[in-house]
Amino acid sequence: MLVDLAGDDRLAALAKPNAGRLELVRDRSEGAGVSGLLVRPDGFVAWAAADGASDPAGLEAALTRWLGDDTGRSD
Fold first, then answer.
1. What is the torsional sign of CA 51, 55, 58, 63?
2. What is the structure's pLDDT at 70?
3. Where are the domains of the chain?
4. 45 pairs with which residues across the strands?
5. 16-53 pLDDT tens trace
6. Exposed, middle or buried, 41 (CB in 10 Å: 0-12/13-18/19+)?
């Protein structure tokens, strides 16, 4: 599950190719200390971004690590 607490469209765009395997939850939270979380099915946080630092490159790397390459290859 990707939790977007900042309303960052870049995070939603990165989640979109994995829509069948990744749930996107969007909300606003002031003062939470984080702007986004990638939470594994076992409840562990696989990626987090501090308030004001959404870190799309870090999220992309975490998505590739946990969900695999989404380039559309069928090999």
1. positive
2. 57
3. 2-67
4. 39
5. 999 889 999 998 877 678 889 999 999 999 999 887 67
6. exposed
How many other CB atoms are found less than 10 A from the CB of residue 14? 22
Q: Is the pLDDT of residue 68 over 90?
A: no
Q: Which CATH number fits domain 2-67: 3.40.50.720, 3.40.30.120, 3.40.190.10, 3.30.1360.30?
A: 3.40.30.120
Specify whether the CB–CB gap between 48 and 32 falls below 8 A: no
pTM, full prediction: 0.79
Euclidean distance between CA atoms 14 and 73, whole angstroms: 17
C-alpha distances out from residue 48 to 4, 12, 36, 37, 71, Å: 10, 15, 6, 4, 23
Contact 54, 47 (CB under 8 A): no
